[in-house]
Amino acid sequence: MEWTPARIRVFREAGLCLSQDEFATALGFAKRTVGNAERGTHPPSLALRRALDQAWENASDIQRDRFLTAVGTRVIPASRDRGRCPAPTLDGLRCAVLGWPPTERMDLSAHSDDGSDHAGAVAATAQVHRFYQLADYDAAAQLLPAVLMRLQSGALESNDKCRADTRTNQYTKAAAYIAAAKLATKLGDSGLAWVTADRAITAANESEHAALVGAATYQVACALLLTGDLANAERTANVGAEVIASAAATDRPNSREEVLSAHGSLLLLLAIMAARRDDSKTAQVALGKAGQLAEMLGCDHNWLWTGFGPTNVAIHQLSVHARLGSATRALQLGATINTDGLPTALRGRRSQVHLDLSWAAASQADDTLAILHLLEAERVARQAVSRNASARKLLSTLLKRERRGAAPGLRGLAARAGLLQ
Question: Is pLDDT at 253 greater than 60 in this prediction?
Fold first, then answer.
């Protein structure tokens, strides 16, 4: 949506019926920042526009109708699913997680043999993570249901129930649910993201593996962030970072690399969340701490499927500037990031650079450059745009601003993402 000063004010007053203080708190921004945007004193930053978009996504139908009536138009798209992946991709995962009966078009027996014993479940879970990091979200969604159904059935529990075996089985469950939470978050299903993240953290705690708890905590924070609960998302990530930092010296089951990677990933997430609050100082502090951990790690690796390392820190530096509205700085950083150091499997992480650069270009109304970066993200990873809720939202914005003939490639991207009738 185009957030003009009048629309921001009407959305707050008529749609949500909130005071400016309440509205600013809900968005996670200072009252002065929101007030300046409402008055038109300063245009809203990219971070504020994203927060407003999220508030719109979370609004009830009644709140949306009040807003649309007040502005006297029904042109603004009101579909909650506009930014989500087409439904069939997550149907199987929802059935497996929520206990729904499968629909006729789904085959939940696919890959079921991969989870017939513990070794098979471990291998299948690792394959799901590989699919996700290759940005092959459809393949991950196809494999996950059978794995989760096997894990939920209790078939992997050892007969003697010894503590070591129980911890191992819980580790596998946590790993599988972390993958499920990642997929649900990426595709924009906040409810499914929350359920799977909750199951991931429960299993991780029972595994008594501190680094894995850190990785699961990351997903809980992401699920909260997806619902718009920035305050609790940030609190969760902060607590997770503190816990894993204190456990690092004494937790024997964890390798040094796993601890550094999980801790560093939480710090990077905290930097992104601080940027959403327009808190540049806190974001840079978190990035600095993550950079120190990356230097200790020494290289880009993929411990606990985090992809954490020096290049990942640089990518998040770019993301922070994009969210702070420093589009020029973000585009400058984009020209310096070399993703060749990343593990080959991290195709999705490579495409993220172009997605962030596309947001930065769009914030400067350079829609041609924004489309070029979306096309490059799609070239790097075929489903990086069509299945990514954030990218689909950007595509919707670009479509609304489209001048026919002036944006080559946009309609093709939108069609592949299922945004055109």
Answer: no
